[in-house]
Amino acid sequence: MRRISPVLLLVLALAGAAAGFLIDHALTTAGRPTFTPSIVLPIFLVLLAVAVLALAWPIRRSTRSATSRRVDPFRAVRIAMLARASSLVGAVITGFGAGLGAYLLSRPITPPIGSIIATAVAALVLTIAAVIAESFCLLPGDGPPDPDGQNGPRLEDDDDDSRAAADTGH
């Protein structure tokens, strides 16, 4: 399993920023009030970041220590996927909050944007915590590269039959 790409997180943050800006613009042109997230959202995002780190910490402790207990690989994968999903959601919400803030700051009258800034910062904290938690769930060291040029173990059904079929045109 490879780590999540920072480029993907950046693209999602930019897409979220564009969505936040355009949604606020559409609401304003329709004569409706702009979107302001509840103060509960940043609190929830920070609690989610703490939970993801707390779930990943025992896996890090057992993979990094010499006297380690055996880690259930299915649990490690589930927590790694939770961390990956949390980093994706955090990146989108970070961008969305930044887009909302950018639109509101472009207006002639500056509205209160404390909740929007808190949401963007909490989502950024979630993204960083999730990336750290994902790294906790990976085994230390890169390991030997496999023939495909990617690091990590090969799956049992990754044999040469699929390459031979592809090479013959089947």
Automatic annotation (TrEMBL):
A Pfam family the protein falls into: DUF3180
Membrane-spanning ranges: 35-59, 79-106, 112-133
InterPro entries, per the entry: DUF3180
Region annotation (Disordered) ranges: 142-170
Keywords: Membrane, Transmembrane, Transmembrane helix
Protein name: DUF3180 domain-containing protein
